[in-house]
């Protein structure tokens, strides 16, 4: 477990731009070191804000997009192309504007795909795809993602791991089907906490007043069953990227000294 590091930016626009710059650097460094990079995307407002900022950044041309594997931390289990699917929103924000290798874009299954409406079968299929991509040196059933992004929900959910639902208790499987999510749609697919913790770096994004309570709870010692964001950490680094509004409830000792 890595201790959380907190960075606070002035507002959500600056947070998105700074996170995009950070992600570009991380991808370029991973590609220089290992030939390719892998990133797990998140849905939600802050995740899409980061992708839009990346699309607008001139530095995006420093990335070799054809040597980037993209995975998803969760997906709303809806038909292919549905406007509420995280992959649809990511395509609109960034993916359709860069030269990705389609074989390296690992979208989670749709509800009208080969598994039909069986969300458990769809979750198993995604787990199998992750397992095929894992290398022996990864020591697990998922690749060692370079960066795994997570938007933090106002209820402290991350990916589609909601407080007290069975998915957040999962300790064996890497991907699960989720039913009864309190945020629509109720049926989803999610990486589990063990899969999230296989990442080298986990970056949690939260901006806006409506996230302040969740951020304070998750960073103040709450348990992961009650506050799933508290259980999300990376092997080398856990970074909380916030704006001032989301950081407003943090106790002084958690607030970074050099914040504006
Ligand atoms: O439904 C979801 O919500 C969370 C958080 O979204 P936000 O809009 O409150 O920032 C997101 O992380 C997740 O991927 C998504 O499916």
Which secondary structure elements does this structure contain, and how are they paired or packed?
Layout: E1 4-9, H1 12-34, E2 37-41, H2 44-56, E3 68-72, E4 74-76, H3 86-93, H4 119-133, E5 147-151, E6 175-178, E7 188-191, H5 193-196, E8 201-206, H6 212-219, E9 237-243, H7 244-247
Parallel strand pairs: 1-9, 2-3, 2-5, 5-8, 8-9
Antiparallel strand pairs: 4-7, 6-7
Bound molecules: ligand LXAUTJHC.
Ligand LXAUTJHC is lined by residues 42-47, 74, 76, 86, 150-151, 153, 159-160, 183.
Domain Glucosamine/galactosamine-6-phosphate isomerase: 11-240
Function: Hydrolysis of 6-phosphogluconolactone to 6-phosphogluconate.
Keywords: Hydrolase
Instruction: State the low-pLDDT regions, or none.
Output: none
CATH architecture assignment? 3-Layer(aba) Sandwich
CATH topology call: Rossmann fold
Helix proportion: 25-40%
H/I helix tally: 7
SSE sequence, one letter per element: EHEHEEHHEEEHEHEH
Termini separation: 28 Å
- The chain-level mean pLDDT equals 96
Inertia-based shape: globular
| E-strand count | 9
Structural class from helices and strands? alpha/beta
Quote the beta fraction: 15-25%
Catalogue the ligands: the ligand O=C1O[C@H](COP(=O)(O)O)[C@@H](O)[C@H](O)[C@H]1O
Q: What is the topology, as strand order, of the major beta sheet?
A: 1-9-8-5-2-3
CATH level 1 class label: Alpha Beta
Largest sheet: 6 strands, parallel
User: What number of structural domains do the residues give?
Assistant: 1
Radius of gyration (CA) equals 17 Å
